[in-house]
Amino acid sequence: MFEKRHSWPATPFLVERSSIVFALGFNRNPTIALDANREQVGTATHLAIFGEFLLAAPRTIDEHVVLFAAKGAFVGVPRVGAGVQLVGFHRSSVCAPARRFFWNALNVALGGAVPAQKMGAMKLKDKVALISGANSGIGRAIATRFAQEGAHVAVNYLPIGHNAQDAQAEVDDFATTYGETGIAVAGDVSKRDDVQAMFDAVVKQFGRIDIVVNNAGIEFKKPFVDVTDDEWNKVLNVNLFGSFLLSQLGARQMISQGQGGKIINISSVHEDIPFPGYTAYCASKGAIRMMMRNLAMELAPNKINVNNIAPGAIATPINQSVLSDPEAMKNAISEIPWGRFGKPEEVAAVAAFLASDESEYVTGSTYYVDGGLTQQVTLY
């Protein structure tokens, strides 16, 4: 809740982003923006900028005039004659039609600058998701997108270094930025006791689990003839056995709930494409592909969708050595028809679809997010 209360006439509304100002009228009465950086615009006083932009709209929808602050919360203004009092509301208190109206208005004013997921109903509202290895890279992008879509996100991290602080900061950001609660859960995905403890913590906190994302993974480069037993087992234990454990415990929980669910594996284009020097990694991803297909068949009667996402070259810390080497970067991009590395957010967008009700009839498939890399065979 906002502590301050201000009054102003219910005539104008303003959209402001950085130095760009759009003064929009109400009932065809225009309001002129005098200064992009001033708090007083036209006859409206005490307008404030929350985050990057503010939409203050005296438009009646469900008997409320609604403001939206991009990095804050929705605030509603009940109409009281010519003057109104600004009072705070949590984002969930604002009806979906109002949310869509104001995001559409803002998007038009800003020329399409508003992220698409902000403009419609949230795809994952009140769903509970557990994401392994979610404190960095693709996992973090997926966790963030799920929170944007209204999910309660459990951020798993390996309890080493500063991972605990990073994961907790991530969860705290979900609450302050999106108004959604989450939880940070430590655990080594290759250890059953750790994974069980993760599930117990999430169910205790939120009462259920609807979505499991197997994202945690490791790789190392070494000629096949030099790989040790320990090195081989470490990769298979994290990538494959970890995915097995989370999928199994997730499926058990979802079956007990009786309302279906979603299991998503973050695989790799190397479930298909050879990658010399990374045999253990390729073997783990190829095995995940067949595990996904089997589970899709076995769990279909329980209405649990199981799918893979196969990222190609994505700009994440695991690829930093290539990103920092101009020659290596040039060679990598030469094999990507789209001509660039992908973004973690692009993988997260596919994950949001697979986690949502929109994918209810989708199971047993791999979705490639690779800029055409998998189809690039001219160099082989």
List descriptors:
9 helices; disordered N terminus; 8-stranded antiparallel β-sheet; about 35% helix; alpha/beta; 2 domains; Rossmann fold; 15 strands; globular; about 375 residues
- N to C succession of SSEs: EEEEEEEEHEHEHEHEHEHEHHHE
Q: Overall 3D geometry?
A: globular
* Overall pLDDT level: 77
* Total number of distinct structural domains: 2
CATH superfamily of the largest domain: NAD(P)-binding Rossmann-like Domain
Q: What characterizes the major β-sheet?
A: 8 strands, antiparallel
Using the coordinates shown, work out and report the CATH topology of the largest domain.
Rossmann fold
The CATH class of the largest domain, by name, is Alpha Beta
Low-confidence stretches: 1-119
Rg over CA atoms, rounded to whole Å, is 24 Å
CATH architecture of the largest domain: 3-Layer(aba) Sandwich
Q: Which structural category do the helix and sheet elements fall into? A: alpha/beta
Per DSSP E runs of 2 or more residues, the count of β-strands stands at 15
CA-CA gap between termini = 60 Å
Classify the helix fraction into a percent range: 25-40%
- Report strand %: 15-25%
In DSSP terms (H or I, runs of 4 or more residues), the helix count works out at: 9
